[in-house]
């Protein structure tokens, strides 16, 4: 799932306002050594945090349909994970980096939701829309300054990009065959007469009639056991 989100992100950053620019898109850790090896303008998206979005966790099961729209399998709902990327621009001049970051913003701001038709592999198979958030309020426990310190580099203008993606839950299990016949209630006399079964449709009126018959038979047996009544 994570590698598919990487693929989607690289496609987004290579298109939009940056389409045809020839700007490299990388997913590397922007360490000091990596920065020293850069010899061309680059947009880098470093995945620095992965954690579950527990507010999206669901219970129960999800039906899986076949081509005839018949439920053939069931599975648990997917678990959603927040993938946080540190997006930076790398050129020789700060002004050029700022222009690239502006182009990234112009590309990502309109793409708040990614439909299944634009997703690859297992992400598309789930049929779910993926939310994208850029330059929002940072909710992770670590600050960007701490991230840069851990990378051994100097603090640099960056965009915090969060893609919340579903992760398929396993296992799946087969569903029972579709119901093709209506339910029925079998009513049998309880007053001692020969057992004669009668089948009736499982509707509210038939159920009430069966209940009344059972109550009447119970009262009749009670009167027969008590001579004083």
Structure description:
With 229 residues, the chain is α+β, with helices and mostly antiparallel strands. It has two domains: 2-174, no CATH class; 184-225. 30% of the residues lie in helices and 27% in strands. The protein is built from six helices and eleven strands. The strands form three sheets. The protein has a six-stranded mixed beta sheet with strand order 1-2-5-8-7-6. It has a three-stranded antiparallel beta sheet with strand order 3-4-9, with no helix packed on it. The protein has a two-stranded antiparallel ribbon with strand order 10-11. It starts with a helix and ends with a helix. InterPro entries: Pvc16_N (IPR025351). Residues 219-229 have a biased composition (Basic residues).
By DSSP, the count of extended strands is: 11
Strand order, sheet with most strands: 1-2-5-8-7-6
Q: Please tell me how large the radius of gyration is.
A: 32 Å
Envelope shape: elongated
| SS-based class | alpha+beta
Q: Determine the fraction of residues in helical runs and give it as a percent range.
A: 25-40%
- The biggest beta sheet, please? 6 strands, mixed
The stretches of 5 or more residues where confidence is low (pLDDT under 50) are: 197-202
Tell me the number of helical segments per DSSP (H or I, 4 or more residues long). Answer: 6
What's the number of domains?
2
What is the helix/strand order?
Answer: HEHEEEEHEHEHEEEEH
Mean pLDDT: 79
Distance between the termini: 76 Å
Approximately how much beta-strand content do the residues carry?
25-35%
